[in-house]
Amino acid sequence: MNYNTSQFKNGLKLMLDGNPCSIVNNEIVKPGKGQAFNRVKFKDLITGKTLEKTFKSGESLEGADVMELEMQYLYSDGEKWHFMEPESFEQFDLSETSMGTAINYLVEQDSCIITLWNNNPISVTPPNHVVLEVIDTDPGLKGDTAGTGGKPATLNTGVVVQVPLFVSIGDKVKVDTRTNEYTGRA
Amino acid sequence: MSTQVALNSIHLTMSEIKTNLVKYQNFIRLIREFFYSRKIVEVKTPSLLSTPTSDVYIDSIGVEVNDGIQKANKRYLHTSPEIEMKRLLLKGSGDIFQISQVYRDNEQGSLNSNEFSMLEFYRLGFGMHQLIDEVIELLIALGHSTDVEKVSYSDAFIQNSGIDILNTDFDDLKSIAKSHGLNSDFHWIEDLQTLLFVHLIEPKIAQIPICIIYDYPKDQAALAQINGSVAQRFELYINGLEIANGYQELQSREDYRFRFNNELIKRKKLSKTTPLIDKQFLNELKDGGLPYCSGVAIGIERLFSAKSL
Predict the structure, then answer these.
(1) Vertex A93 angle, CA A87 and A97, to 5°
(2) Would you call A30 an interface residue with chain B, using a CB distance cutoff of 8 Å?
């Protein structure tokens, strides 16, 4: 199915240079004299990169068969990360490249959003906030709760996050997956 | 006039609405005072015309006017007061300005509308740069900064993209468009120039609060005088948004006939309606044409919104 520029809107999934992309911003530029254009910001759903294109108004692009489904993360065998759709029990796997930064935040049994393109998984979006366990960090100074600076802590997924000084090994902490920031103790 | 622009935000309280309407009123008052103090006469020209615009990318809205029972005549709402104001100049009006509501068909997007307010004014004996200076003086009178960047169309391209726009032919521009992953399927070089301007230059101009682009390529002359490879045409951009379009005006009847016809040929090519050329206007140009002058059209709502930033 093709979409004309007049049907463009944020979130619409289209094929661009062979990759499925999602419209992030669509602006119609109509010069006082001259042809009207749509200046469009896309997110490439495979590479995650943002790109800008300008189309002649009236041009059309092929739609991308993209679906977002909630799935459970099962396990990783070191090469592939395995997921299951909880209703159909259908299973999907992704390579480390497709996982992107999601590998930093997913632990077995967690839910996340998997993006499918032509029924193949292309990317993973972890929940905005996850709870992870501190497996390594320097001991903090006792009584220092003001937390002037902070210190690095390694969490059970291997990711390193800056935490306040009072956090110690074994603590569960909340992390914002979009910014990789500590948001509190769980 | 469209005071709607003062009410654009949805969450206004009644007192905020009142405040904004007064703000808009003061804005219009400042514009009028600017012209009155320069002895430029305010005019009001007809908005129901017998000929639609010949501009290839502007479409008139047609309306039916009844002259007694079952005698319907087709009229067209003006898309700009340009021709009617030039008629006044031909009759010896001297310097004039007008604030009018104009109407355009097939507009879309949040920055465009089927009707908007336009400030248009003409200055006898002014060249393009003189008119640019006066537009800047108007901006200052409206409270804008005196810090204005003036750059030619050609320099804007060189500085922001390295493209020598005036010396790049149609085929080479197609290759450049392709190299940016853009469609290169255009009938005319000016559309490709505009595509590259919108794609590569406007986002850069968006960083500049007030920017004047002048000396457009001759293929984008519209109704401006051509001088060598460039047209004496300029545009005002505020934070990357097109606010005004001005020309050192064409004068001779033959030039007008040629430019109007050129637009009609393009409309034909795009399978758009091809109206008759405004014969009456051409007739009025026959004794020596339009006096030497420059004129500019300014989008009022856009200017008002830029002021309230």
Answers:
(1) 135
(2) yes
CA proximity to B200, closest of B167, B173, B160, B236: B160
Question: Do B194 and A32 make contact, defined as CB atoms within 8 angstroms?
Answer: no
Residues in B closer than 8 angstroms to A57, CB to CB, are 108
- The rounded distance, in Å, linking the Cα atoms of A179 and A128 is 9
- Shortest CA distance to B88 belongs to which of B127, B124, B58? B124
Nearest to A58 by CA among B242, B57, B289: B57
Cβ-Cβ contacts under 8 Å, B174 against chain A: none
Indicate the residue of B191, B198, B245 with minimum beta-carbon distance to A32. B245
Q: Do residues B285 and B253 touch, judged by C-beta distance below 8 A?
A: yes
* Mutation target vs A (from B195, B234, B245, B298; most A CBs, 10 A cutoff): B195
Domains contained in chain B, CATH given: 1-37 (no CATH), 80-305 (3.30.930.10)
Give the CA distances from residue B52 to residues A121, B60, B186, B265, in Å, rounded to whole numbers and listed in that order.
54, 5, 25, 15
Cα angle: A10, vertex A16, A21; to 5 degrees: 40
CB-CB neighbours of B72 under 10 Å: 11
Neighbours of B26 (CB within 10 A): 11
Interface pTM (ipTM) of the complex? 0.85
Whole-model pTM: value is 0.84
Contact A29 B183 (CB under 8 A): no
pLDDT value of residue B14: 87
Q: What is the dihedral of CA B275, B281, B283, B288, to 10 degrees?
A: -130
Kindly determine whether residue A39 and residue B199, on different chains, have CB atoms separated by under 8 Å.
yes
Residues B26, B42: Cα–Cα separation, whole Å = 17
List the pLDDT tens digit at each of the 186 positions of chain A.
999 999 999 999 999 989 999 999 999 999 988 899 999 999 999 888 999 999 999 999 999 999 999 999 999 998 999 999 999 999 999 999 889 899 999 999 899 999 999 999 999 999 999 999 999 998 866 555 555 678 999 999 999 999 999 999 999 999 999 999 999 998
Cβ pair A39, B199 in contact under 8 A: yes
Contact A34, B198 (CB under 8 A): no
Contact across the interface for B111 and A17, Cβ inside 8 Å: no
Report residues of chain B scoring pLDDT below 70: 1-2, 8-10, 307-309
Q: Under an 8 A CB cutoff, do B111 and A29 touch?
A: yes
Give the pLDDT score at B109: 83
Tell me the per-residue pLDDT of B273-292, one tens digit each, with 9 for 90 and over.
Answer: 999 999 999 999 999 999 99
